[in-house]
Amino acid sequence: MSVKLDRIASEISRELSSIMLLEAKDETLKHITVTGCDVTSDLGLARIFYTYMGDEALADVAKNLKEASPYLRTVLASKIDLRHTPELKFIYDDSVEYGQNIERIINKLHEEE
Fold first, then answer.
1. What percent of the chain has pLDDT over 90?
2. Looking at residue 9, which CATH number applies to its domain?
3. What Rg value do the Cα atoms of the chain yield, rounded?
């Protein structure tokens, strides 16, 4: 990925995090952490990776994000300087959960020694 695309992806991640935490009315969005962003080379699509630390089911969170996507894209367009704001596709990032599971297994092995 080029430096320009990296910079745009980073800016989208930062701004979306801020929008969801400070401006969104939906409480579910306030408990979402944006962990990364990939932007296609034509800037038509941004894949937003996220984790969720709340009580709601992940399917409901995904549904809320899909419904909020047009709003988030509109607000994002006003905050970043791009000719065309990419479509936002939210993808749950299970790497944090995976890492915690590995850590639990390692701790369990150390306890058994």
1. 56
2. 3.30.300.20
3. 16
Please tell me the distance from the alpha carbon of residue 33 to that of residue 54, in angstroms, as a whole number: 11
Query: How far apart are alpha carbons 108 and 54 in whole angstroms?
Result: 26
Q: Which domain holds residue 77?
A: 3-112
Q: pLDDT tens-digit profile of 40-82?
A: 999 999 999 999 987 888 889 999 999 999 999 999 999 998 8
- Which H or E run includes 32? strand 32-39
- Cβ-based burial of 113 (10 A; exposed 0-12, middle 13-18, buried ≥19): exposed
Q: 40: Cβ–Cβ under 8 A, 6 or more apart, which residues?
A: 46, 86
Total number of domains constituting the chain: 1
In terms of DSSP H, where are the helices of the chain? 3-18, 27-30, 58-79, 95-112
Cα separation, 4 vs 24, in Å, equals: 28
